[in-house]
Amino acid sequence: xxxxxxxxxxxxxxxxxxxxxxxxxxxxxxxxxxxxxxxxxxxxxxxxxxxxxxxxxxxxxxxxxxxxxxxxxxxxxxxxxxxxxxxxxxxxxxxxxxxxxxxxxxxxxxxxxxxxxxxxxxxxxxxxxxxxxxxxxxxxxxxxxxxxxxxxxxxxxxxxxxxxxxxxxxxxxxxxxxxxxxxxxxxxxxxxxxxxxxxxxxxxxxxxxxxxxxxxxxxxxxxxxxxxxxxxxxxx
Amino acid sequence: xxxxxxxxxxxxxxxxxxxxxxxxxxxxxxxxxxxxxxxxxxxxxxxxxxxxxxxxxxxxxxxxxxxxxxxxxxxxxxxxxxxxxxxxxxxxxxxxxxxxxxxxxxxxxxxxxxxxxxxxxxxxxxxxxxxxxxxxxxxxxxxxxxxxxxxxxxxxxxxxxxxxxxxxxxxxxxxxxxxxxxxxxxxxxxxxxxxxxxxxxxxxxxxxxxxxxxxxxxxxxxxxxxxxxxxxxxxxxxxxxxxxxxxxxxxxxxxxxxxxxxxxxxxxxxxxxxxxxxxxxxxxxxxxxxxxxxxxxxxxxxxxxxxxxxxxxxxxxxxxxxxxxxxxxxxxxxxxxxxxxxxxxxxxxxxxxxx
Lengths: 236, 355
Description:
- The complex is a heterodimer of chains A (about 240) and B (about 350).
- Chain A is mainly alpha-helical and about 240 residues long.
- Helices cover about 60% and strands about 0% of the residues of chain A.
- Chain A has two domains: about 5-100, Alpha-helical ferredoxin (Fumarate Reductase Iron-sulfur Protein, Chain B, domain 2, Orthogonal Bundle), CATH 1.10.1060.10; about 105-230, no CATH class.
- Chain A is built from 14 helices and no strands.
- The model of chain A has no long low-confidence stretch (mean pLDDT about 95).
- Helices cover about 45% and strands about 5% of the residues of chain B.
- The radius of gyration of chain B is 21 Å and the shape is globular.
- Chain B is of the alpha/beta class and about 350 residues long.
- Classes of the chains: A mainly alpha (about 240), B alpha/beta (about 350).
């Protein structure tokens, strides 16, 4: 049993997610990612259960593991109670810990997600709030969202929210002492370490590619590059 | 014999839903895109049904989107959720009701994992104590907020002002119901009706007079896919999966779509606009798209709440055709007014989608 497989096998989701795959392919038949990307969760299961270190390392460095949407439709269908989606989560965690994620275009996107969502959680107490859904970055949200963005306090008040105010209610300000607790939890449970790891490897990659990267936020060239790059090979 | 067997199987997918005294945790996406829905839920529960629903200002995101984009480790998410359990315990509650389906799925996953790996629960208790000096009891009852509306669907019907019936034809409206994947696909026993035949929304629709459309891609994901939407380069995944559903439901001519997941409601609304602008097509016969409601909005309309107080103006696909079918009176000129009746402008018109 090799080293990478051992590390995967320390992840509770890997333990729960892989009970022995018989390669029936039902997961692939139901998978929304397999319909869109060149992606086959059956092959992922087969590769990891082979315990072949070279193949697992190639997987950790590949585009493939970033195609799953974690809808977990596979969990319902597998006749052996495997969950390829959980296996993917373990693979992605290990890929980030080892810095392999920057080898793939889709993996490099983890930097954008860390900067956009990760930093927002610690700053606001929310994964998503109106401030981070800018019409420029989200043209698909359409003109109604553009109108909402320009009038957020008035519209939130009309909706009975407590927008950016103290106390209970929708979109309230999360108190500084609560954010301090969130920060503390992120520290003791390893999320800060994960964020630092994503930053370290992304900065190394940005330097290697000669692309400007800042210490925080989304206003830098590397962010926009990984946020928008699509080499067009993912669906074929 | 056969029918008894079916009854027995069905019993596996019923679940206990507490009667009263709920600790409420909000959804990041619902608060952002459909804030009127959470307000409507609380109004129905507190004012119309007389239930005790408690909210603590100190609750936060569950980190679900961070977790399912793989930047937040499992232990972190579990500890954040444990902190919510601590707030619930401190307030003297034992029933917890997340507004978000991603949160509900995660809360379920946390409790299930702790059941099978008690050492993980011990580790998380230790983390929470180290970080916050908080302790907690696990909830006795965990259900999604749509389960609560399902439970009280008949009481809501008794107080209803309208039915889900076309006022002109007298026929039941044809409704597409969409269940968020994380409601029951991961843990089927936690969803009413399981993953195959979830009845949480069909129960509401049929109780309130509508009919449910069964179509081939009924259980297909809306296409959110977390990183597949959040990162601009990946959004083709998201819109393609929604389109697959729209094409599949189109022949049945739905009057509206209703979803129990905040994200699904938003995507099924916004992607109709995107597809219309990109390809010049809609999935109705008038070029306006199929209206999409949250289940709270559907319940609010049935209860006679004002469409603009519910926030239906925050949808990109116009809801007026649906309101007309339901015979709901509304003032178009009030649609985009601010909280105090002030003029705050109007959204621009899309190029193709008719609004």
